[in-house]
Structures are given as C-alpha cells and as structure tokens.
Amino acid sequence: MEFGFLSILPPLVAIVLAIATRQVIVSLFIAIWLGASLLHAGPVAGFFRSVDTYMLESAADPWYAAILIFTMIIAGTLGLVTKAGGAQAIADALTKKAKTARGGMLAAFLMGIVIFFDDYSSCIIAGNTARPITDSLKISREKLSYIIDSTAAPVATIALISTWIGFELGVIGEGFAAIGQENVPVYLIFLQSIPFRFYSIFSIALVLILSITMKDYGPMYAAEVRARTTGKILRDGAIPLSAGDTEVLQPKAGTPLRWFNFVIPIVVIIVTTFVGLYVLGGGAEVGLMAAFGNADSSIVLLWASSLGCLVTLVMVLVQRLVPLQEAIDTIINGAKSVFPALIILVMAWALSYISGELGAADYLVAMVEKSGLAAFLLPLLIFFIACLMSFAMGTSWGTMGIVTPLAIPIAAAIGGPALLIPTLGAVLTGAIFGDHCSPLSDTTILSSTGAGSDHIDHVRTQLPYAVTSAIVAGVIGFIPAGLGVHPLISIVLGIAALIVFVKLVGKTTASAEMIKASKK
Questions:
Q1: Partners of 216 in the beta sheet?
Q2: Disulfide: which of 29, 152, 236, 429 matches 122 by Cβ 3.0-4.6 Å?
Q3: CA-based nearest residue to 64, from 353, 361, 306
Q4: What pLDDT, on the 0 to 100 scale, is given for residue 517?
C-alpha cells in the first residue's frame, strides 16, 4: 500500500507534539501509535502492535539490546568513579593552579574537558569545584555557568567513551538501516562524524578563545564588568539555583581524593574498546581501519564497560572507599540515571521501524528531488532544523532520535555516499545547540545549578555565544562540507574566524576597572 503523505505523518506528529508539549516520550509514543494504526487498520490493533511488535522487537534486537545494556553499565561505572572521588581529585588539582581571572577560567575549562564522560557530572563537579575559585577571582557566575555548559554536552557528544556513545550509536545504526545498510560499522561511522561536529567543536574553541583573550561581548560583557568592578558575582535580585539536590553525585566527606581512581577506569575502558575492535575485526590480517569497520562495536562496548565496571569496583573495595552494598547501590543508581534516555532510544527505534514500513524515507526522497534543492545545501538545512528542534524541545537526544532516520535517507538519495557523514554530523551537532542553550534543557539547568547562577541570566548571557558558534558552523562548516571540502580545513578556518570576531567585537574589563579605580 502506498501511504504518500501519511507516511511522514508519525514523525511530523512526534516533532510537533514534542515542541508543543515538551514531553518527548509521550510525543514519541503517540507517533508510534498513529503509525501502527495506519499499518494495522485502526487504533485498537495499532495500540497493541505499538507495544508487542515495534517497541518489543526494537528492544529485543541483539544489537540494540547490547547498546541499552552498555549505556546502563557505563553510567553505573562512571557514577561509582565519581562517588569514589576520582573526578573530584582531578578537578581539585586543576583549580590549585588558578591565581588570576584568566587562570580561573582556564581551570574551569580544563575541568570540563577532563570530565568528558558525562555532561551531567561535568556540570555538577566542575561547577561546584570551580565556583569558590572563580568567586574569589571576581568572575561572574554567568561566565562560570557558560564555561561549564560549553564543556559539558559539546565535549561528551564527541568523546570516544561517554554516556552519550550508546545513544548516538543507536540512532546512527537506525539511520543507516533506513537505507538498507543494517550491518554498517557503526562505531567507525561515529568516529568519522566527529570532524563534522562543527557546532560542538566551535563552541569549545570559543570558550578557550574568550578565556585566553579575557574578552567578552553582549550581555556577558556587562556581567563581567559588574563582577570585576564591584565584586558582585551575581546581579542584584538574581535567584541562583541551588545545588543541594545534587549532593548524591559527590563523594562523602573525608573520602580520599585520588586521581588514579578516575584515570585507571577510564583508560581501561578506552584501551579495551580499541583493542577489542582491533581483535574482533580481524587484527593484523586486515589492518587497523578495516578491523574497526568489521568489528561488532556493540559487543566490544559491552566488554569494555563491563571490564571497566569490574576494575572500578575492585579498586573502590580494595581502598575501602565505599562499602560493597553502597558501591552496588551507586552502580544501580548510575544506571537508573539514564533510564529516561533509554526509553527515548527504544521509542525512536520503534518510530523509525514504523516509518520504514510506511515508506517515509522513499516519500521524503521523492519530495526533495522534486523540490530541486541543491545537494550541497542539505547538511546546512539539516543542521538548521536540528538546531531549531532541539532549542524548542530542550532535548538533544529526542532531536537525534527523530531526525537522524529521516535525514540519512535523504542524504543518500540526493547526494550519495559523500553527503552521508556530513549530514549525520549536522544532526548530531545541531541537536547540541538546544541542549547547550535552551532554557528548557536539563544540561542548561544543571549548568546554572552547578555554578550557582540565576538560570535566566545564564541563558541570556550564553545565547549570543551559542548563536555565534552556530553561524560559523553553518557558513564555514556545513556549506563547504556539502561541497566536499575536507572538514579539517573548515575547522581551522572556523577557529580563525572566531579569533578575528572576538578580537574585533570583544572587549576586556580592563578599562572599566581603571575607571572604577580612578574614582576611588
């Protein structure tokens, strides 16, 4: 049966409802139910097929099940690493070097880079650790919340191992399955997409540029002038978010803070991942990159996360940092923290499954071909759509789950293999825009919480910086990418453009501080 426009109705409903209600899970289920009803002649049969066919088969598929289990194990492991004080030890070591405002900003920046494994942990640990230092150095809370927010999701999404990996691999696999490529080397594709994550890369670069030059622009400049000249790290009347509800993420008072409790588990996970991919994919017989392409990344990630969890547990028990029962509870609580994301992932898989049976990809491809859209503009268009969706919804994962299975078939049809990776990168980094600066985003809220900033002040001061990175990503990143320009060239040119822009537009607080001093 040809469904025509009805084939894209379920994902459209998911998008519209998610933006309107900001309830991604409910919106996805309604979209699944609608699609199943179209396929199975009515809402009653559609409701039951939504659960016993599309959602069940999505969760029961061995590859998808491995991704779900890996995500829970890695989240539990990193929860235990944090509880043992390992991440806090690294953060404390960095802040000891901060003696000036520039040093304080760079210390907060480096903490966000080092705590790469989870955006939530990064916001809370970096914010709570850096806050006393930045307060003493007269750095505004708005600036601190911007720094930790810009080194949370933008870093976690391109890290080789993080709590994001399982989700991203899941949506990548589903996107390529929509074009009939069900056994693609998903982890290798993930690695290939990293240079095309222009928004994430430029967001991180902009933080570093602003910290080194000590320049700002827009509302952030006014906040920094206030903090530096008056010592008011918060504006009068500001309502800072409390970090009291995040104490569960912190090690207990008196816990020895040892750097190796962070480094060793992370190294074990990373090394096991790369060795596992190499060995399982054929090793020396086929070569490094071919081995990475041949290996089943879901199995390797299960190996790596399980071994990392075991090593972490043994280290914690041997050092008597946490009792066994508490360690197990911490692992379980860490796994629970990603449960909402796993629900979104299963539903995104189910919606993609239904969209495939309805022929949504074929219909969209036909429409795009009729529209005459220049193929090279597709990555830019997809990036723009992902930015708008994620900002309106406040969720990057929901955006990735909905857009990726639709974007990949369009890219394959109108641009061929050359556009697949740039378009994938456009979705995955465009989705970060909303996670980075939407007032509805959990990471944006946690950044305000960790830094002790007024939430609206954080959003207001950060938004011009996020828009700057997005414009550079679109113009210097995705337009050239659509034309086949190597991403490293765009990265170099984009960072150069940011440096020039900050030099021309940004201002330091030095003159304002001199005027203030002369009036005394």
A1: 507
A2: 152
A3: 353
A4: 61
